[in-house]
Amino acid sequence: MNKMAFQGQLGAYSHLACTKVNPQAEVVPYDTFAQAIQAVEQDQAKWAMIPLENSSAGRVEEIYRHLPKTHLNIVAEHFQPVSHCWMALPTAKPTWIASHPQALAQCHDRIQGLQLESKVEFDTAGAAKLLAQSQDLTGSVIASELAAKLYGLNILESSFEDISGNTTRFIVLEKSNKVPEAQENKTYITSVIFTVKNIPAALYKALGGFATNGLNLLKIESYLDNQTLHSSRFHIDIAEHIETQAMKRAIDELKFYASEYRWLGTYEAHDFRQKSA
After folding, report:
1. What are the phi and psi torsion angles at 82 (to 5°)?
2. Which one from 6, 33, 160, 170 is the annotated catalytic residue?
3. 82-128 pLDDT tens trace
4. Which of 22, 34, 133, 138 has the most CB atoms less than 10 A away?
């Protein structure tokens, strides 16, 4: 099985990310993130391509709710630059423009300059598909270059966003819980989620082991437990392989102060991190 699930329509930025990570994979679109994840859980797909955070819009809140519920593991990460294209049907003379609210916001100044009426759609690729089906020569959309190719639309202008550099970080989820063998010339990231015990300074003490062992925390996200609303769950990414002695000592200390702990995966860092640094 060589299928990769994603949320959205064909031509979405998640679809584009799939083609970058595994060009040979058969992509399968689903309406929701939960359905895409469930497809892997039920062996209908091998991987799920899931957006975790965006440099403009921030974290994808829904995903942090799904991760503790699934037994899938993170096996890779991918940073996808989001380059919006303004597109329309051949011979069109647009008076309005449609897309996802985030895309419209990221292209606000350009839209105002063209004096186009904005219309909100559920997603970027969905807007492109609807326009192709309607054959409305007064309409235009903001979507990916891939969407233009799939739905037969002409790109009127590339890099249509007001500010360049917008990037989405994706994670690839899989059933496999295999830890990759550490190689000296590669950088690895380990992701874990945990809940701290209800004692004073528990979070400070739980994270202290990473500092004392010289490990770099790349990110920490907190969110309330849906069931109780009394405790916070934390998601952290550490720039280290799970099997090093320093990491083992730090994780042991974290577990001592945690009421719940789960390893999400250890995977190779994407090249984007080194370019950004």
Report:
1. -100, 100
2. 170
3. 999 999 999 999 999 999 998 999 999 999 999 999 999 989 999 99
4. 22
Is 95 assigned a catalytic role?
Answer: no
Model confidence, pTM: 0.92
Tell me, what CATH number does 213's domain have?
3.30.70.260
Question: What average pLDDT score do residues 213-220 get?
Answer: 97
Are 261 and 192 in contact, with CB atoms under 8 Å apart?
Answer: yes
**168 an active-site residue?**
yes
DSSP H helical ranges for 24-84? 33-41, 61-66
pLDDT of 90 reads 96
Residue holding tokens 């998640």? 14
The number of domains in the chain is 3
**Residue of 6, 33, 124, 168 marked active site:** 168
Residue 228 CB-density burial (10 A; 0-12 exposed, 13-18 middle, 19+ buried): exposed
SS3 of 190, please?
A: strand
